[in-house]
Amino acid sequence: MAQTIDMGGKAALVTGAASGLGRATALRLTEAGARVCLVDVDADGLAETAKLIAGSETLVHPADLTDPEACAPAVAAAVARFGRLDALCNVAGIIKFANSHQMPRGDWDRTIAINLTAPFLLSQAAIPHLLEAEGAIVNVASTAAFVGEAYAAAYCASKAGMVQMTKAMAMEYVRKPIRINAVAPGGMVTNIANGLTMPEGVEYDLIQRFSGLRGTVEVEDVAELVAMLASPAGRSYHGACVTIDAGITAG
Predict the structure, then answer these.
(1) Does residue 155 have an active-site annotation?
(2) 117-135 pLDDT, tens per residue?
(3) 177: which DSSP letter?
(4) CB-based contacts of 76: which residues, under 8 Å, 6+ apart?
(5) Catalytic pick among 151, 155, 173, 237
């Protein structure tokens, strides 16, 4: 029997909450009754997300997650405001396309910092609180963790690393009252693509190889899955990476 997503009385932290999947996840969690700490580098976007949330307590916490020192304070701010933390949703992510032999070191470092290092450091800070609350971590990976995508070596590496980090942490805490899972969406229409440029000499047929035959995935569907795993409805999931990709990784 399907369980209702119920986050009444609980508190969550969502990164990337200024737009796209992060915003949709925050909205879905508040619909389920959660109080939510909204984290993103985009302060204006966070303010807009907060306006869209009605009837639920929120905390707007602008932070640049490329800075390792910004991660633990975000968790501390959520706990200070809500008195507890029941769910950490690591949604924030970036992608930079490049020919691997030409990718600037700064783009590689920024991709790894946001997509992999920040989720680890946020988890590190959140785990003591989540153990107390018997809560959950949900990491947003990608089909790029499983399918090699041309011109996206840094992104693929970061998302594959996130999946293995999820599994390793799940095994480490398998006897503890915490659930740690990931979701792997296919392509979605979000502003992560804003400002993206393709490298010189790009072969578009290679990019089409990891485009879904059924089109893009709906952001709201992914947010629903993240919220389910963050809530008690996901009680039987631990160490899983759930793909939601309209068939991209099927074959």
Answers:
(1) yes
(2) 999 999 999 999 999 999 9
(3) S
(4) 125
(5) 155
